[in-house]
Design goal:
single chain, alpha+beta, Nucleoside Triphosphate Pyrophosphohydrolase, 7-stranded mixed β-sheet, 4-stranded antiparallel β-sheet, globular
Length: 280
């Protein structure tokens, strides 16, 4: 799932954006998850939230009249960078989940057709919005966290996580290319499946699900986002006995001494899974 080496020279991380989609259900808050294609070089086969790397076109000034202003946050370099990250999160959500936060309404069939068109035409989304008088609703995206791939990993990303309540009337579905399965579930249920070795989770996904599992509804999730620490979390790979651990800020073996996310201070590789534990 990860390609980690203790002595690897660090590569510069690429900007990325992820959108955590939540909704209310009779049994509590649910989150939308996708399974990455098992052939993917990065997190192949893992359960994740829709997301991907920032494209150069996401920062194009032509988006200005096609988006609402994003919510202010500290995890971007400036306003233009923040807008590009939020646009990337929306675009990736459309590509991997067929969900698009917009200021109006649109039929599922239109979104599915648009997603197909975007495979060969990167300008399709902007043209679609302009033709219908719609805008990407960047204000619907609430900054939630920032995780940077460890320096020991060969492919590194500086991923900003946003959370949004899923738009009404849009049916989420994976793309059968980058993602090969999808589902809505209570966060606690996904964590249970991971604990029983039914699914694979990377540490950031596991930690976010653990935080969401404590929330009673979607509104409560947004309240959690409002109080989140948005300082970067870059796990550090260290030996631990006959295995390895990814230590988080606040762990005794991490150079950043203050904790930046609630929960245990490290993830220890047990078999093929990174298990949440505290320092020995």
């Amino acid at each position: 799932m990860l390609d980690l080496k203790l002595d690897r020279a660090a590569a510069a991380p690429k900007d990325a954006a992820t959108l955590i989609l939540v909704r209310d259900s009779a049994s509590g808050v649910e989150v939308f998850c996708v399974e990455r294609n098992k052939k993917s070089r990065f997190l192949g086969g893992a359960i994740v939230f829709p997301g991907g790397k920032l494209d150069a076109k996401d920062a194009d000034a032509s988006w200005l009249d096609l988006v609402t202003p994003p919510r202010p946050t500290t995890f971007a370099n400036d306003d233009a960078h923040l807008r590009a990250l939020a646009i990337a999160a929306c675009r990736e959500s459309l590509e991997e989940a067929a969900i698009l936060p917009i200021t109006g309404t649109v039929a599922d069939a239109e979104l599915h057709a648009l997603r197909k068109e975007m495979e060969s035409d990167p300008e399709a989304l902007a043209r679609f919005l302009r033709a219908r008088g719609l805008r990407l609703d960047l204000a619907a995206l609430h900054p939630f966290g920032r995780w940077i791939t460890p320096e020991a990993e060969s492919r590194r990303f500086d991923a900003r996580f946003f959370v949004a309540i899923a738009p009404e009337g849009q049916t989420a579905v994976h793309d059968e290319h980058e993602t090969t399965a999808s589902f809505w579930a209570r966060p606690a249920e996904v964590l249970r499946r991971f604990a029983e070795d039914e699914v694979q989770l990377a540490p950031p996904t596991h930690r976010i699900l653990a935080l969401l599992a404590e929330r009673k509804d979607a509104k409560d999730v947004l309240a959690l986002a409002a109080g989140s620490n948005l300082a970067p979390i870059c796990p550090r790979l260290v030996p631990q006995g006959d295995t390895m651990a990814l230590v988080l800020p606040g762990d005794p073996e991490h150079e950043v001494k203050e904790s930046r996310v609630p929960g245990s201070s490290r993830y220890v590789l047990r078999g093929e899974r990174w298990r949440s534990e505290n320092a020995p």
